[in-house]
Structures
1.
Amino acid sequence: MRRTLLLFAACALLLAHGAHAACKADKPDADPVSGCAKCSKDGKKCLECSERFGLTADGTCVRCTVPGYFGDKCSKCDGDKPDICLTCSASCGRRSCLGLFASEGRCEPCSDSCADCNAKGQCLACQRFYGLVNGTCQHCKENCYSCGDDASKCESCTSGYDCKDEKTCNSCDFGYGPSKKGAKDCVPCKSTGCTGCYDDSAKCTSCDTGFGLVKDACVACAAANCTNCDGDAKVCTSCSSNDTVSLGTDKATGGCAPCKDANCQTCTATDACNFCKDGFGLDEKAGTCKPCPEKATSCTFNATGTFVDACANGYGPDKAGKECKACGVDKCDRCDKLGAGFCDVYGCAEGYGYSDQENVCFACKEGCASCTETSCSYCLSGYAFADSSEKACTKCVDGDKRGDCQPVN
Ligand SMILES: *[C@@H]1O[C@H](CO)[C@@H](O)[C@H](O)[C@H]1NC(C)=O
Ligand SMILES: *[C@@H]1O[C@H](CO)[C@@H](O)[C@H](O)[C@H]1NC(C)=O
Ligand SMILES: *[C@@H]1O[C@H](CO)[C@@H](O)[C@H](O)[C@H]1NC(C)=O
Ligand SMILES: *[C@@H]1O[C@H](CO)[C@@H](O)[C@H](O)[C@H]1NC(C)=O
């Protein structure tokens, strides 16, 4: 009886104590007011405190009062002993964060250069310019910004440096070079249009399109459409071309002008063709274009003689490669690889397949564009494979869901 009374009294006391303040949780992402982050269902107790508060045994939150230099960085303390820190947050400045960990109730800095460490002080992440190697932070190589878990290999370099080679940052990036010969820094190349100045930012070794390298510097080429004028801004050494017009260097003006030969596709100089239009072949010695032998779409005239490189549909080069001859196989379009007399394996006209053994083009099954004796490679347009065995093609119908029946955008 006595015992029951005592217990009752204790309970009443606890209830009275807990009831004195109904739990009110702070709004997330707002400044803590009550210090409680999560209340119990009955709204009487706090279950979880906000940052920088500690939970007491009776379910209230009190502000941490951890002493020491980093005391205010304590994010969680013991509510009944608010001067004992349990978890610390990092101390961040404008450029980097110093990791802190709780040690004997205080916030202590993680090891040097460490941005985050565990409760035992073992580093989990390093500051910039440091790599995590076996739990400690080691300085990355020179000019290296981050080096992951191997300080000897660079992952990214500081601005101006390039770490493509051997994962070090000892060479400067495109358009950068050392401020003077032998220096270890990287500054933009001095000359406008310079793309490389690897030994010395004042000494350019390569220029952008439209510039020429003249005495260690880049100068803008004088002529329109000029892409390079190394040696002299007024003498163009290569010209730009577009799909419709091909330009070559013009010795007379130092500029660029259309290729002289009307049958020339691209030229280096206006009078030096290097690629002829279809049906014409380059006379390698003269740099001009001459008509190809009959039925040849491309050919070459060189010191040995005339050679056909490609023939019109239904024709192929003869054995010597000097003439285009009819393939000689019914329904054969291409016989370039084997020469006239044989059809290429995929050389038969659309809707026909090649039989290697018989050297004939045979008709594929209905709707098939290219086939072997046993299967169809793909269907004609307007047809699609009937099923996943991909053997037969059937006509597409209205609303046909098969992929090959969908209009091509
Ligand atoms: C990391 O530590 C282990 C064991 O102490 C050692 O064998 C290994 O060589 C160390 N690795 C580096 C990169 O220092
Ligand atoms: C040549 O330059 C002019 C003017 O800049 C330009 O309009 C034209 O497209 C260029 N031609 C070629 C072939 O690049
Ligand atoms: C190609 O260059 C010529 C002459 O320079 C110019 O007139 C034409 O507009 C250019 N065409 C294209 C597609 O850029
Ligand atoms: C001429 O062109 C043919 C075919 O491209 C080649 O086989 C031959 O070696 C060339 N001759 C010379 C002298 O370049």
2.
Amino acid sequence: MKKIKIIAITTLLSLSGALSFVSQNLLAQPSKTVRVLYIIPSDAERADRASLVTKAVEHNQKKWADYGATFVAESIAVINSDKTSNWFLTNNDGFHGQNKQWYWLGNAWNTAKSWYSDAENFDSNHKYIIFLEVDHASANSGAAAAANFGAAVMPKGIIDSIEKGNYSAVGSIGHELGHTFGIPHEDCDNQSNPKGLMCNGGNYPNVKLTAFHYKHLFSDKNEDFFYEKPINSFTLKENSVLKGNITRTIQNTGLEECAKLCLIDDNCGSIVHFDSTCEFKGGQLENVWNISGYTSAVIKKPASESFIIGEDKVLTGVIWKTTQGLNFQQCASSCLANSDCNSFVHFNTTCEFKYGDLESAWDIQGYTSAVKR
Ligand SMILES: [Zn+2]
């Protein structure tokens, strides 16, 4: 089983001078991880879908990374249980009392806890995504999947749908994972596409992370699950001041904290910071005054909004620039910052600038190609 840890940066990013516009913060390995389990009861119909669900997790991981929240998923743990499907549905899980309709969830979680000796309820160091090869329809819980105790439990019905290529089933993994980070449902009536991760309904892959989600993801207890810090979601320009109206001023604040406060505020898209003053402002980095000592920063557009993306595809053109040690979003940002770059190919932590179009691309697993919109 391929480990789906997507970035491991051990060397300094070698960004050329042309990319000085792009934030060059080193991304530190997160200390907290997402654990993925595939639980197979003794009488399961299927036991061969660990690879399928791994890909589905990876799909969500890329989507989150596109919005500046890259978590590390541990290698999937495949558990051949000696318990039957019926046991998962009917054994009192010790959590739900007479609410038998939820025993499948509690029993899946108890199985995960006995697999990982350091696991605990609402584990502060790990989140869990548990794929359970149990048809739970007869339990009548009314939920296709659910999260509790810091674990997202995805039963057989979801795995079946993923296998059929149903995107809303793939997206339900990220939605339930969102619950494990404490994110509630959101009001989606007035949202345009892409819609928020915590909307009900099958919008995936047209989903996004916003201030509503960042508040929870980058909270003190959760921020160590991610490679990025809030500042990494911004394009920085030193010695410059955005032209635009100040909408909020916060004193006694460093640049990092200023960026975080902006990221979790629905009405903030860019900031100016100097000394210990943080200003929320409108404006674009193309439109600044040069004033030394001031730093301007604008929230990056996610790659998916700037590029047409082809997964498992490789552009056929010539590579004219290769940079190692970049995740997909960083590769996209560096292409956006380079006016000669129209398209790129990304795999593992390699970023290649290439020409080409997606129509004539080769199909190769694990590679992602992107062409500017
Ligand atoms: Zn939900």
